[in-house]
Amino acid sequence: MRKWTFDIAAYSPAFTKRLWFQLALIYTVLAFCAMTLLMVLLYGIDDYHDFHAAVTLENVEKQVVSEKLSVAQFLYDAGNSEWRDKARDNIREKLVNMERGDGSTLYRITSSCLPEVYIQITDRNGRLLLSDPSGLPERVAARFATQQKLPPANSHVTWLAENGPIWVDMPITDARGGITGRLRVLYIAEFNLWVQFKSIINFLLHTWNAMIFLAVPIGIACGLVAASYVKGQLQKMNEVTESWRQGNFSARIVLPNDDLFLRHSQHLNDMAQDLELFLSLKKNVAVRDERTRLARELHDTVKQKLFALGLQLGTAKSIPAVMEAAGKPILEAETITREAQHDLMEIITQLRLEQTGETSLFERIGTLAEDFKRRFSVTVELAHPEAFPLDAHTEHQVLRIVQEALMNAVRHGNSTKVAISGKIDRGIATLTISDNGRGFDTGKKTEGFGIASMRDRARELPGGKLEIESGIGSSTKITLSWGNVA
Which pTM value belongs to this model? Predict the structure, then answer.
């Protein structure tokens, strides 16, 4: 059967190129988006600060004062429309396009707002000479009316609301210092997010080429690093899965806790654990089936032939002439035949201990007890609950531990009586094996492998635990417990 495996090294060039291209494209887009967002934030914050730094009482007053001469000339020659238009347009132009900074750092408030300028010029008698626009909006006319009721001052520039409209009321004087009229201005400039957004978009349209030029090398470099990292992690996973393919399921995929592949590697590790358990159970089933087959074959062939041989020897013993000629060899052959039958029954019994079928755990322990009673004249007492459900793997390990414990009690402890009891409490099964032997020193290392084998088998059980209590000249008590009992 052909074995299919995936070796990333075999596809490394093409795989790396595709992965690098995809990652480079993704990182280029991410870098471009990140730079765009950063530019939007920096540009917007900078404009917000520049706007409030530009729109101040001092700056507004400065712009209005710079046009006092044009206004004075208009008042001197009220019929001259040229001076009127010049005064009006200059004031409006300077206030609408107020700036901050110079050169490459120049900021104009029209990038963040739509300023409104309303101008009125009166003569010394309070007669209105200019109103721009001629028809003031109702809300603006109301503000002008309210402010005009206040006592006149030499120069009055103030906020009508916090970060809101600015009111300017400024007297215009002649060369001798006499008041020839008044200039009143209502200046409204409020930060507008929509205007600011359009300004940012316009700025980005002129800088996107530069940002793309910067984003491409960043994306290429990040793509190379990420592709190399992903390839390395996949190579680690490939090495572990290759060891699984070869039958070594102890290997596990180990990745950093914050790794992108952590969840997938955990799924693979769980799959390997389940597969290892499945193969172990499959192996146990195969061993059990083979033992059953061997036991059946031995029972149906060798045992029957030994029985037939025993009958033939019994027939030969009934013939006096044969006994007179070969009595001793016949009796010896009969003894050997009985011993062979006994040994064969022990082998068949041990082989059948691997079977589960409808036989319960303590019924199979009872079979072991009968065998030990027949072979070693030892009494085995059983006390157990009616139900003691186990899977095939757990039952096999428990039976082998009991078998080893009985053998140690007879062979090393010279026991004549062994008590085996079991119980289940809150999903924990406990099996206790006590004898009346001579005991041993549990702190002294033994030369055999029996106890070590029992401990190894206990560790194979779910939550398995083996405890041995004994001492020289006293009895021995072995307690085996495990969990996950249905």
Answer: 0.48
